[in-house]
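Before going further, learn to read the protein records used in this course. Taken together, the tokens spell out the fold as the letters spell out the chain. A record is reproduced here so that you can trace the correspondence yourselves:

***
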Amino acid sequence: MRRSSILILGIMVLGSGCLGTDDSNDDVAAPADSARARLLYRDNVGADHTLEYHALGGGTLAVRETLSIDGNEAPLLDEVGHAESLAAVFQRVHPTTAIPRILVDADRDSTAQRERRARMPSPDVSALLPRPETGASATTCSADFYGDNWGATWFLNGYCNTGNFRECNTNWGWFDNWHQTSWNSYRQFEGDFSTNGHIGAYYWDCFWSLFTGTVCYWIQSMDHDLLPRHVESWTTTGSDGGWVRFLGNSPCGHLGVAFLWNS
């Protein structure tokens, strides 16, 4: 059985005026190794609510959104809809703000790699990754303080709500699954009040050499904790032909996951 998670991203509002392209890169992270997600732009849209624009590797782009269940804020990416590029996401969130140049460039580079991704063989279903460790000490796991099954209904109502196909579960220990990246959204929730969850992601890429021919691998692009009572969503954009894989883990068994896709 497989289980998984997702994210939410944000952008700094740079001012108002006619739509255009902004060349400033104040929030750009230093270039990372190609096997790791690279943060392109961050947008703080609330007190505990952030949008981030990422290059996951292999030409795959994604927007990450994070927020707290206790902040009483609605996710923005649902309002954005199924945008085809990072620039389109930014424009819908900030319709009167110039689009950062780094997002336009990332969209262009992703489009240039589309044909190569389309030629890659599909992932081998036997290429499973190690199952995450589970089972934190009972003394570190919280009670269900609000009597709402650790926020299960709240998560399903708010996050299992779009896409032609949906895989949604709550109060699981771990999740592992993958889909093509023409459009998909991975959403992970940690329902425990005191213990972090964990999220990891991989992209599928292939390499050719004279000695090995074509060899394909899952390449890790991120690996980090998810705070208690927080949701993280990862939505891919404009990455036709590629594959992305998410792994979620909740030591206390209060993992909520919604993996949504169109085809």
Residues 21-261 form one domain. The chain has a mean pLDDT of 81. DSSP finds five helices and 13 strands in the chain. The first helix runs from residue 77 to 80.
